[in-house]
Amino acid sequence: MRAQFVFSEIGVGLRRNLTMTFAVIVSVAISLALLGGALLAGQQVNQMKGYWYDKVQVSIYLCNKTDAATAPACARGAVTGQQKREIKADLEKMRVVDKVYYESSEQAFKHYKEQFPDSPLAPSLTPDQMQESYRVKLSDPEKFEVVSTAFSGRQGVHSVQDQKDLLEDLFNLLSGMNRAALFLMALMLIVAGLLIVNTVRVSAFSRRRETGIMRLVGASSFYIQIPFIMEAAVAGLLGGLLACGMLMSGKYFLIDQWLREQIPLINFIGWDSVLKVLPLVLAVGVIMPAFAAFLALRKYLRV
Amino acid sequence: MIRFDNVSKRYPKQNHPALRDVSLEIERGEFVFLVGSSGSGKSTFLRLLLREERASEGQVHVLGKDLNRLSNWKVPHMRRQLGTVFQDFRLLPNKTVGENVAFALEVIGKPRGQIRKTVPEVLDLVGLGGKDDRMPGELSGGEQQRVAIARAFVNRPMLLIADEPTGNLDPQTSVGIMKLLDRINRTGTTVVMATHDQQIVDQMRKRVIELEKGRLVRDQSRGVYGYQH
After folding, report:
1. Domain ABC3 transporter permease C-terminal spans what residues (chain A) (predicted)?
2. Which ipTM value was assigned to this complex?
3. Residues A123-137: what's their mean pLDDT?
């Protein structure tokens, strides 16, 4: 394999079809940026869900020492061991309750640290400031009210929270946007694929003299096809790099510069998540066009 | 070198076969003219040799290989032992003479050192020594055909297939090309040449194979062109 020969052929091919190459690069870039964006949005949702979101529907937070001063429900002080045993026993007696988990303050502290690693509160926080809680999985997720009325205001209970209530609307919105992004991505990928097929067709036609001679003198079909496939792969790689640039500037300008200041409470995805998505974006950017070119060659190039 | 055993070739959607029941043998080192009017099956004959087509019936052996049974991925290797020359030269107009010849070696992955050494040698052999850097467009038809022959011969093939190589050339230039092909033949390369050129066939007095409507109608050593237009 003479690498120099192949690379000069690729350069010639890409320049000959400059407008088409440009269209391929842009459509690949847009579809991959949408793919990356959808993946990152998924990660954002997972990050916001935290440890308990998908496991339980109801959280019963119990009073700790510091709550006595701040929360009226906890005026009588921290929850006692006796109260905890009663609450647990009553929960397990209820029909709608499927499963009861207990989260100690140490565990709560650990989960908090995992979810908000760089929260400004984290350094000053200690495990005994966290509330113990019972996390309840319902057999019927809609029956939150039953648990809520039974335990709100009870001795030692700080509050009862419907886990879904808080974030469900936001998540629904995000997943809807996600689906739209994936749909658009699929559409753009099809457009990119068709553009590539067309590029290969034009390219095969304008190089038919060369490929005809290559065939006659006994060049292997791999050798004949590789410039076309590499042409598509290089265009795809450029599109992939463009998509990476779009994702990184999205992270920087949209999240870091804007959203983080607008909504400081949400823990946004970090650079590590973005950097993990980029190799995938590049790989799809190279492999998909190369494969499309390979399929097109079977139709438009006799070897 | 070449053996046809009861070879027929039918193209889809055509009533008459392009070749019917052709059997013949061509030995190593022979020079063979293939004659016949247009549509007689000459091109099909050559395409079968090159394995551009497969025989519908019968067997085609070239260089000791049964081409019907040769798998597709082995065809390029088989073609490296053949050289091909056409009426329309088929040179790359944007490459120099030297690059055109080198192209045939580059695309089969020959090392650069070898290419640098062989290309001038073969250009000398075809009488174009020192014209490496000229563009095909600057050359006469006869010279262009010499470039094509150089490209076909640069890999030292066992068999040279020529499809009307003098079809676009004036009689005097044609004689030059035939002398060159004869010289190549004398190095031991088998030459199969399809032609309409009566004068050349009559002059050379080589074996003549005549096809008519796909049938082999004459196979004559030291033959002449033999039929009137």
Report:
1. 183-299
2. 0.88
3. 80
